[in-house]
Design a protein that fits this description.
heterodimer, A: 387 residues, mainly alpha, 13 helices, globular, B: 73 residues, 2 helices, 88% helix
């Protein structure tokens, strides 16, 4: 019993740590364009986003009941060790991509970690690969395309409709529109991603026998998940904000408005239809489309290509760390402690690397971004495990 | 493996349609506001204002419906 409660405590703390990285990784999704166009000052933007993420966490807990949305066979032997290793994998991948300024999907990192850890611990019958295909892979490919097309069409329309308009009216209008659409994305993010952490913690408590099966997340879990994500959002993943705000395309307020409107719409319609998708992919797609939609718009396809590679790597990379991690955690208490130490050590190491070339609220909009530039050192995701 | 193409397709179509509709309504409102700055005469100004408010209200209700959808999941 002592042993279980140690592991459960570790999983809860790790889940909140993941929630935190999820928050700052995804600030860019809602706020990068508003920051880049100057519609909001950087610190104000992250503060608004933090509050809305927190509010979003309280709107719904419907998705939080299943940890994986049917991706895993939760009866095949899901145990706290798997969740623990999955979270470590997801956190490390989130940090590596943050260091390099890559907006990658936090949800994919979590799914990747869970799939990898389950494969290594239980075997392939623990994973429903058909659900992985229909609920993760296909939406991941389709959603940026939809968001991109919608943003492209909306941008064309917006510029055509307002080209003879009063300049001052246009500027103010698009500025407010952009801020409003960014706020909507923030709320949607708080709801969808906040619930993932709640689900992880709730399920772990159920597996440990602390909660009855099928329970809703207790209030303290909702609070803790919401507040941690809001804190992470407020810290702001400035490296990623720089890439999304300036690196993909040079965005004007009208484009920020259309990109975020498209993103919010795609997120809401598809969650209504039951496709769980990545806010990151959708927002990036929206920015690409809006960048292309302006007559003299420029899209930096080399950056977009690198993001594409990182997205492809997310599931396997987090999965590999999760898989190796669960092998270690299965060795007993010392293995669990070692895995925790690797997680903390890896995170600290990446943090130290990030200090060499700081990006924060003060320089997020003036630096010319390219992913290659913001990468001081090449870090391989599985290095901390091998060490 | 069964892929629900019709759900995928309708998500695709609905997303496109709603985005363009909301952005269009918003730009319509802005066009009305732009015209208002160039118009003199009480009735014309009033009707342009009304048109702008209706357009923005349409956008706001789309956003409100979005929230409603999240809250009832």
């Amino acid at each position: 019993m002592e042993h279980v409660s140690f592991l459960v405590t570790a999983v809860v703390i790790t889940a909140l740590a993941f929630d935190f990285t999820n928050g700052f990784h995804d600030t860019a999704n809602s706020m990068a364009t508003s920051i880049a166009t100057g519609a909001l000052r950087p610190k104000v933007a992250v503060a608004i986003s933090a509050v809305l993420n927190l509010a979003g966490a309280f709107i719904s807990v419907a998705v939080a009941k299943t940890i994986s949305g049917g991706i895993l066979d939760e009866k095949a032997g899901l145990k706290p060790q798997i969740v623990f290793a999955a979270l470590i994998g997801a956190i490390l991948w989130n940090l590596v991509t943050w260091l390099r300024g890559i907006p990658s999907s936090s949800s994919h990192a979590l799914y990747g970690g869970l799939i990898g850890a389950t494969l290594f611990a239980v075997g392939s019958h623990g994973v429903h690969f058909d659900v992985v295909m229909t609920k993760i892979i296909i939406p991941a490919v389709a959603s940026p395309v939809v968001a991109g097309l919608a943003a492209w069409a909306a941008t064309k329309l917006a510029y055509r409709m307002t080209r003879n308009g009063d300049e001052q009216v246009n500027r103010r209008g698009f500025k407010y529109g952009q801020v409003a659409s960014s706020m909507l994305v923030s709320v949607a993010h708080g709801t969808s991603d906040g619930q993932k952490t709640m689900g992880v913690i709730t399920l772990t408590l159920i597996t440990a026998g602390t909660l009855a099966p099928g329970s809703n997340p207790p209030l303290w879990v909702i609070l803790a998940a919401g507040v941690t994500m809001a804190l992470g959002t407020y810290i702001g993943g400035w490296r990623i904000i720089r890439t999304m705000g300036k690196g993909i395309s040079d965005i004007e307020p009208a484009q920020g408005f259309t990109a975020q409107s498209a993103a919010a719409t795609v997120i809401l319609t598809s969650s209504h239809m039951g496709f769980g998708l990545s806010t990151t992919h959708v927002c990036t797609g929206g920015i690409l489309g809006a960048g292309k939609g302006r007559a003299d718009g420029v899209v930096h396809w080399s950056t977009a290509r690198r993001l594409g590679y990182a997205w492809l790597l997310t599931l396997p990379a987090a999965g590999l760390v999760g898989g190796l991690g669960v092998l270690l955690a299965d060795q007993g208490v010392w293995g669990e402690i070692a895995l925790g130490a690797i997680g903390i050590g890896g995170a600290a190491w990446i943090y130290v690397l990030s200090r060499r070339q700081k990006v924060d609220a003060t320089n997020v909009v003036d630096a010319t971004p390219s992913i290659a530039e913001s990468a001081p050192t090449v870090v391989t995701p599985n290095a901390p495990v091998a060490a | 493996m069964k892929i629900n193409w019709s759900a995928l397709g309708s998500t695709f179509g609905m997303s496109l349609l709603i985005t363009v509709a909301v952005v269009g309504a918003f730009c319509l409102g802005m066009t009305a506001l732009s015209r208002r700055t160039r118009t003199t005469g009480g009735a014309a100004v009033a009707s342009l204002s009304a048109a702008a408010y209706v357009s923005f209200a349409l956008c706001a209700s789309a956003v409100g419906y979005g929230f409603y959808l999240i809250a009832h999941k």
